[in-house]
Specification:
Elements: H1 3-21, E1 28-37, E2 44-49, H2 59-65, E3 75-78, H3 88-96, E4 104-106, H4 141-149, E5 154-156, E6 161-166, E7 169-175, E8 198-202, H5 208-216, E9 221-224, E10 253-256, E11 265-268, E12 287-295
Parallel strand pairs: 1-12, 2-3, 3-4, 4-5, 7-8, 8-9, 9-11
Antiparallel strand pairs: 2-12, 6-7, 10-11
Helix pairs in contact: 2-3
Length: 303
């Protein structure tokens, strides 16, 4: 074994250990402002979280989730992949605590319909297409999860439009079921919003077909997850993949949807967790987002 090869192996082992034992639990809060409200409107603080992939044994993740109510959001948006095992539902609801009673909306993701199975980790880097599946093939634990999340003030917006009045503004949330499992039917909620209502989209996997349809209807903002921000990224470069057909440069954070003249934005959460079969992050720490909707005349700011 050459000296250089030994160095490469040492660095690789160090990166792996860092990703498994340190960065995977280095939770952060991303803060971003989105100028989509009418002039003079009061700010609206939305907590966006996604891809918890929660096991009941994820103590550090559960502890962090329990702190989120302290952010005092006006609304909560959850974009799926909440659990990684049915037994995690009670742990999830206990950790969410009083957030369940804050007005909110959610959709489910693929991990909420089927338990994770081992796959070749390098297959994640290949171009990923929709895996067709029907709801009748999905496990019953998704119904238990939906009931638990709907026990307070949250509503499942898959294939539905829900209007919520907050801080003097009227927001209309419309969502799709998981596009990664080909369960999306945006046509069920398609169409322009009523006058004076701010339309916002919610979906788990940000496939282009869903985003284009929402942008065409002039939705002002779309919330999504699924990508894990790339999960394993290259420092100073970013994500290599999104596990869907979204361009990797949009793997996390705020960006403009195509048809930017309509002021449509996309916000993708990098997520709080990982699949239990690939419990590793690198150059992509787990996160939730505090998204502040502001009046259009205010300058958009990222942090």
């Amino acid at each position: 074994m050459t000296k250089w090869f030994k160095r490469i192996v040492t660095v690789a082992a160090g990166c792996f250990a860092y990703g498994v034992f340190i960065e995977r639990d280095a939770f952060k809060v991303r803060r971003v402002s989105v100028p989509i409200l009418p002039d003079g409107a009061s700010d609206i603080r939305i907590l966006h979280f996604s891809d918890l992939h929660l096991l009941k044994t994820n103590r550090s993740r559960i502890k962090f989730i329990a702190t989120l109510a302290g952010l005092e959001p006006d609304l909560v948006v959850g974009t799926g992949d909440f659990i990684a095992e049915p037994d995690a539902v009670p742990a999830l609801t206990r950790a969410l605590g009083r957030l369940i009673d804050v007005p909110g909306v959610f959709v489910l993701g693929s991990a909420d319909y089927e338990m994770p199975t081992f796959r070749n980790p390098f297959s994640y880097l290949r171009s990923t297409t929709t895996r067709e599946r029907t709801k009748t093939e999905s496990s019953n634990f998704s119904e238990e999860l939906t009931a638990a999340l709907s026990a307070g003030a949250w509503e499942n917006v898959a294939d539905r439009r829900v209007e919520i009045a907050v801080q003097g503004s009227r927001l209309e949330f419309r969502g799709t079921d998981d596009a990664h499992l080909a369960l999306d039917n945006y046509e069920n909620v398609a169409g322009r919003a009523a006058a004076g209502v701010i339309p916002i989209g919610v979906t788990h996997a940000p496939y282009e077909r869903v985003l284009k349809a929402m942008a065409s209807d002039r939705l002002r903002l779309v919330f999504a997850g699924h990508t894990h921000g790339g999960q394993v990224c290259v420092p100073f470069y970013g994500a290599l993949t999104t596990n869907c057909d979204l361009n990797p440069k949009y793997a996390k954070g705020l960006s403009r949807l195509r048809g930017g003249s309509n002021a449509s934005y996309l916000h993708v959460s990098a997520g709080l967790g990982t699949s239990p079969t690939a419990a590793f992050r690198f150059a992509c720490p787990p996160e939730v987002s505090l998204v502040t909707l502001t009046a259009k005349t205010r300058k958009n700011q990222h942090r």
